[in-house]
Amino acid sequence: MHNHEPPIFELSGQGKIGVNLPQIDVPQSDLPADLLRTDDLAGLPELTEPEVIRHYTRISQRNFAIDTTMVSLGSCTMKYNSKLHEEAARLPGFAAAHPLQGEELSQGALQLMYELQAYLGEISGFDAVSLQPAAGAQGELTGILVFRAYHLDRGDHERVEVLTPDSAHGTNPATAAMAGYRVVEVKSDARGNVDLEDLKRKLSPRTAALMLTNPNTLGLFEEHVVEVTRLVHEAGGLMYGDGANFNAILGIAKPGELGFDFMHYNLHKTFTTPHGGGGPGSGAVGCTAALAPFLPAPRVRRVPQTDQASPPTERGASLRPANAAPLPEGAYEFFVPEKSIGRMKTFHGNFGMLVRAWTYIRSIGAAGLRKVSETAVLNANYVQARLKHVYPAAVERTCMHETVLQGKLAMAPEVRTLDIAKRLIDYGFHPPTVYFPLIVPEALMIEPTETESKRTLDAFCDALLAIAEEAARDPEMLKRAPTTTPVRRLDEVRAARQPILRYDPAVFARLREEGLQF
Amino acid sequence: MTHYIPITDADRAEMLKTIGVERLTDLFEAVPTDHRFPPLRLPDPLSEPELRRELGRLERMNAHASSHMIFLGAGAYNHFVPAAVDQILRRGEFYTAYTPYQPEVSQGTLQAIFEYQSLICALTGMDVANASHYDGGTALAEAAIMAINVVRGRRKIVVAPGVNPQYRAVMRTLLQGVDVEITGDENPEASLAEVAALVDQTTAALVVQSPDFFGVLHDLRPLTTAAHAAGALMVAHFDPIALGLFQTPGEAGADIATAEGQPLGVGLSFGGPYLGIFTCRQQYVHKIAGRLVGVTRDVENRLAYVLTLRAREQDIRRERATSNICTNQGLMALAAAVYLSLVGRQGLRQVAELCYHRAHYAAAQIAQLPGYQVLDRGPFFKEFVVRTPRPVGAINAALREQGIIGGYDLSGDYPHLGDAMLLCVTEMNSRADIDALAAALRAVA
Ligand SMILES: Cc1ncc(COP(=O)(O)O)c(C=O)c1O
């Protein structure tokens, strides 16, 4: 395979253009001379369409992705992304609709959103859903701000702490801090659950919430989840559910029935909207009826006869301009929940992702969703069973949709998880998540998902077992890995010490002089 | 089995044996029995042909850029998206890839983001661009948060009333839990000079938008001077297409500059996914939120790209991170990179010129119509305000009958303007479209 592709700027040639634009067909107006940019856009490259396509196609081939290999990243749910979903989101009535064109012209989009709100609520056992948050972390912030508003609304001003388990994802404490809370960490016990004694010690009248991922980041179902939610509620706190691991429990358990008050769904995990190399996602959220009035605006409802005729979870002002003619009863409209915390982002959420998630739920239905979770859990336990004799499990238990193993090999103590992960690349697999959760030394967090075949799972396990043998025989070989990739191990310290964060011809000329190949 | 699950019954039996349990349901014993296997009341699943029919039914109930002439902007813009952009986004190697934490198998994504960052820096004249925020509104809110972190001990953000009302709303939502005062936009008629006069020794940042929500272009240099004189940062929100012609935030001396990147090759998509562009000066790079791609080398001395300065981020810094952002809008950043590569230096200027001249033509046509008044608020780019002889809702209803999506009704956000709409004209609106709009407006006056 081709090894190099220069930065696009080095393919530029004066006078080239890659688009075919209309002529100016109107009289030209004067430009305000004092407001013009003065550099003639000199930093932008000039290329034709074939050059641009070849450049980006060539660099795309330097990626591992679900379409090319198993991506067993724990906590990320890298399942197959249906091609139908891509077609659906690109239908012109979805892809080329303006977000402010008005409900009269958007009934199909609104119906889809309304139905998705209902489906997500049903799957998770919640009374109300907002589709607005853009990603999981924004869903978390939505939840904690809703909790804050709820406590304040009740005149409860003393709750200044948010509890997060020591196994929590980094977004949990970062979110709590962003919302103005002090973060208090709760320990995990030997079976990987929240340590009930530590939880009791840390709960107090200052507790606003506990943020819990269930199954947790060890891939384990919280065995005392009902007890945990009861204790938090007794202390006057609320239960936040981080839904990153929802793929394990579709049709298996409903967080709303387990005592959670609020959760986010990562539509880009569980409901297979593609990760896009880092985003976009969608962090839709669900909650109990008591919290519904605080949800971010706008949500979608059917036009009621009168506002009082709305179900309690759908009360609030219509978003329509005051002078617009009313919509017929039963039509779909946006509304602002009565005590809404406000808008989390512009417009109505990452709508293109909502179309994909809706399409997914409609194509596999209730039985299909349960099948998804059953198979995801089966696959993870199978991988765990095949590997745990060599790679010790962080906790010896039946896991859910992912298993956390350790890259601690009895026969090769100098080899680290990082080396194993890098060597796996030479076998053609994307590495699992490594060094997370933080409480597990040398963590190797494997989430196969339900869309991998047994044949692939076996090849993956065989590769890891072969690597363990290689480690015993020739640990240096692992330290040198990967050797089959367009680039090998990187000097990451240099990247941070002397940051080069944009293309600069002089800097790149110097790098060439230093002998760098590109 | 669904067509997405490749485990056969025979596979399952064998796998259960390896695991050492008898039944699949044995794997779920940790779930409390009374909550285990709840029924899900969902509609019956549909086959792909049936589903396509249902999707088509919903899709056809929506207006869109091919069914209607769109003269509506207000934060989402009907700009031209070259076919080549989507062809790149559709490559499975890009859109089904994860965040590039493993650089050896992610050089494609990493190089694309590095090029995106570079293109955005070239476009804006700023030093550093991150790998994206969720959208223009959250990028601007993060700019306010960053300013609070940079200018220690100051808890006030002064924001101009001409900043998109949704962005100001987002900023207030995201900052409601922390002790920060957001002020400056109480008087919707305040001029930028009046707003800048509110910046004092307790102010962390002055936040302005140019072109502002009404489409008006501003010279931001005097505002930067005023902000810096008080020790505050200058935060400028811009329109990336306008930069094909007009003053860049870099030239204006901005410390942080943000934008809605949707005009750069990202379709309307009923409001998302869009692209939050975030840039700043070099000296603040350690306070920036989100991901950054840098350059380094591998053990064989090949140039390589990698996520860098990661110690700012939530997975490492946890409650002391600069932001909680994790998943961003990476694929939309790729779209912007491909778009900017295609239009390049000449094309971007051409797009900006088309917008400018057609918008001015439209304003001139509408100004001649009896009952309509184009407000002169200064030089404008692609949007302008028109006072209407009847409430905007009624006008827009009449325009809909003609297949036209009219302007944004300003009466809710800016009641002092009376009956007024914000019209938007881009390179997608031909002269004939504009004439049709003018004729339709004349007819409803
Ligand atoms: C457990 C957990 N919580 C939260 C998040 C954050 O979600 P997002 O990246 O969508 O913001 C992640 C994402 O990786 C996660 O794994």
In terms of quaternary structure, what is this? heterodimer
Give the neighbour order of strands across the main sheet of chain A: 1-7-6-5-4-2-3
The first-to-last residue Cα distance of chain A is 14 Å
Low-pLDDT runs of 5+ residues of chain B are: none
Q: Give the beta-strand count of chain A.
A: 13
Order of helices and strands of chain A: HHHHEHEHEHEHEHEEEEEHEHEEHHHH
Shape of chain A: globular
According to CATH, what is the class of the largest domain in chain B?
Alpha Beta
Distance between the termini of chain B: 61 Å
**What CATH architecture of the largest domain in chain B do you see?**
3-Layer(aba) Sandwich
Taken together, the total number of domains of chain B comes to 2
**Helix/strand structural class of chain B:** alpha/beta
Please state the average pLDDT score of chain B: 97
The percent range for strand residues of chain B is 5-15%
Largest sheet entry of chain B: 7 strands, mixed
Sequence of secondary-structure elements of chain B: HHEHHHEHEHEHEHEHEEEEHHEEHEEEH
Tally the beta strands of chain B.
Answer: 15
Which small molecules are bound?
pyridoxal-5'-phosphate
Question: What characteristics describe this protein?
Answer:
heterodimer; A: 518 residues; alpha/beta; seven-stranded mixed sheet; three-stranded antiparallel sheet; 15 helices; 13 strands; globular; B: 445 residues; Aspartate Aminotransferase, domain 1; Aspartate Aminotransferase, domain 2; four-stranded antiparallel sheet; 14 helices; 15 strands; 36% helix; binds pyridoxal-5'-phosphate
Task: Describe the fold and architecture.
The complex is a heterodimer of chains A (518) and B (445). Chain A has helices spanning 49-60, 83-89, 92-95, 107-124, 136-153, 171-178, 196-202, 225-234, 255-258, 351-387, 417-426, 454-473, 475-480, 492-497, 505-513; strands at residues 128-130, 161-165, 182-186, 207-213, 238-243, 262-265, 285-287, 299-302, 316-318, 332-337, 403-406, 433-434, 443-446. With 518 residues, chain A is α/β, with parallel strands linked by helices. A seven-stranded mixed beta sheet of chain A has the order 1-7-6-5-4-2-3, with helices on both faces. Chain A has a three-stranded antiparallel beta sheet with strand order 8-10-9. A three-stranded antiparallel beta sheet of chain A has the order 11-13-12, with helices on one face. The longest helix of chain A is centred in the last third of the chain and has 37 residues, at 351-387. Chain A is globular, with a radius of gyration of 26 Å. The relative contact order of chain A is 0.13. Chain B has 445 residues and is of the alpha/beta class. Chain B has 14 helices and 15 strands. In chain B, strands 2-8-7-6-5-3-4 form a seven-stranded mixed beta sheet, sandwiched between helices. A four-stranded antiparallel beta sheet of chain B has the order 11-12-15-14, covered by helices on one side. In chain B, a hairpin with a 5-residue loop joins β9 (293-297) and β10. The radius of gyration of chain B is 25 Å and the shape is globular. The chains are: A alpha/beta (518), B alpha/beta (445). Pyridoxal-5'-phosphate binds at residues 75-76, 135-137, 169, 171, 213, 217, 242, 244, 266, 281, 283 of chain A.
